[in-house]
Design a protein that fits this description.
It is built from 7 helices and 9 strands, in the order H-H-H-E-H-E-H-E-E-H-E-E-E-H-E-E. Helix 6 crosses helix 7. 29% of the residues lie in helices and 19% in strands. A 7-stranded mixed β-sheet has the order 3-2-1-4-5-9-8, with helices on one face. It has a two-stranded antiparallel sheet with strand order 6-7. The protein is globular and about 45 Å long. By secondary structure, it is α/β, with parallel strands linked by helices.
Length: 275
């Protein structure tokens, strides 16, 4: 049930979905334009726009616990920052949370939607993740404990995905237990290029082996794992795409969803599975 207390930050998904699906609640032209932008760009059905991806991740209890201990959380491609608000709804402090998106209009729209202009303590940052200007990332670089990046990698080909992984490798603290987590489309069998967003740049859909290889390369290229003191350990958890979600290009039966985690571990210790 939605929480109505003026002190509560965030609302549950059912409440926000009801706002989105009831057009009588939409008063602002900017608000409507933002939703149109989201639908046209991401191809996300209305009933999935505010789904809390981080909540369904197997590491969610661990993420929530770490934020309660003042861990720094960065959400790349945050959209409405609904995942940060879900963490807040479940009791996590948000002063160490940063929401990043290419389209800054989502920020004011989301504050209207969630009614938390004065109460959400996290920061919002409009940025192009492919902009390598060091000034852009001052304050974040080397300071993130957890980076969340859902429905982001699969928008691009392998080269740009590697650049995103390099950025994350720059953002995280260079210590064991730093995490990158998310959900994305992947290939059911072998890794291959599949047109998800457009035909001009087919998305690269990973297998387990190709995903690990990408993070290994990103770690070395960024300098994070040079010297073998640290390494990225990647784990994928397959998740069937519900039939109700198989619309448009998502009808390709070669595709599945994966919940993924890349965790920095001691490079001198033999590989183990992420728990």
């Amino acid at each position: 049930m939605p929480v109505e207390s003026s002190k509560q930050v965030g609302f549950d998904a059912r409440y926000v979905e009801s706002l989105l699906l009831d057009e009588s609640n939409i008063k602002s032209e900017d608000y409507t334009a933002g939703l149109d932008l989201l639908r046209n760009y991401s191809l996300i059905p209305d009933n999935q726009i505010v789904s809390h991806v981080v909540e369904i991740h197997p590491l969610y209890p661990r993420i929530l616990a770490r934020l309660s201990q003042n861990a720094r959380f960065v959400d790349l491609g945050c959209c409405f920052a609904q995942d940060i608000r879900k963490l807040a709804y479940d009791g996590a402090p948000t002063h160490n949370c940063t929401a990043v998106d290419l389209e800054p209009r989502f920020f004011d729209i989301s504050k209207d939607l969630f009614q938390d202009h004065e109460r959400l303590q996290g920061s919002f940052m409009g940025a192009d993740i492919f902009d390598e200007d060091e000034k852009l990332w001052v304050g974040l670089e080397g300071n993130a404990d957890i980076v969340h990046a859902s429905s982001l990698f699969h928008l691009f080909g392998l080269d740009k995905q590697r650049r995103i992984a390099c950025l994350i490798s720059r953002l995280v603290r260079p210590v064991p237990r730093s995490l990158a987590v998310g959900l994305q489309l992947a290939a059911k069998e072998k890794a291959e290029h599949i047109p998800i967003v457009n035909g001009e740049e087919p998305s690269f859909c990973h297998s387990m082996d190709s995903m690990q290889a990408m993070w290994d390369e990103a770690g070395k290229e960024s300098g994070l794992t040079s010297g073998n003191a640290l390494r990225w350990q990647v784990e994928l958890t397959p998740r069937d795409i519900p039939e109700s979600h198989r619309i448009g290009l998502f009808t390709d039966r070669r595709l599945t969803e994966v919940l993924w985690v890349a965790e920095l571990v001691d490079g001198t210790v033999p590989e183990t599975r992420v728990e």
